[in-house]
Amino acid sequence: MFLLNLPINIKEQAAIERRRSEEQKRLSRIFNVKYRTIGIDKTALDEQVQERQYMKELEKQRNDAFDREMIRNDLKQRLLEQEDFSEQRQCAQELNNYRLLYQKPEDSREWDLNDPKKWKKLTPARISDDDPRLSLSSGQKFAGEDLQKSIRKKFQQEQLKNYFDLQVKF
């Protein structure tokens, strides 16, 4: 009679199980068309994939660090540009204030040439007929000219009117 219920040695059972799994893996490798035709080393490829993923992660971390650095540098540059702009504006304001206080147009050497009210400020060429500034060679006074002609005519007209009034009364 056969004893079927005999306990099998655990070591033998583990060895049998190991052989079965190895045979199963071998059969899967044999019947796997891609693996059989290319003849790839699965462990090496897995290592390469893991290494590539690790390198991608490192590159991503590096790019993120560069992005943060770029943002920080942009902020610094913007602040420096604002400071520079405000400095230039301050200098321009101070320069304009200096010009307003100390470089007035009427203080310049050429103001007598550029003065818009120059003609109003000038004295006339002659004030009266007996102006002491007039000489013979000035060419300002000629025979027959009379600056007080209009005043004299008014005075003469008033005199004539007075004479006429006196004659009418008598």
Automatic annotation (TrEMBL):
One Pfam family, please name it: RIB43A
| Regions crossing the membrane | none
Instruction: Name where it mostly resides.
Output: cytoplasm
On whether Coiled coil is a keyword of this UniProt record, the answer is yes
Highest taxon above the source species: Eukaryota
How does the record describe its quaternary structure? Microtubule inner protein component of sperm flagellar doublet microtubules.
Tell me which family the UniProt entry assigns to this protein. Belongs to the RIB43A family.
What is this protein called in UniProt? Answer: RIB43A-like with coiled-coils protein 2
Q: Which organism is it from?
A: Rotaria socialis
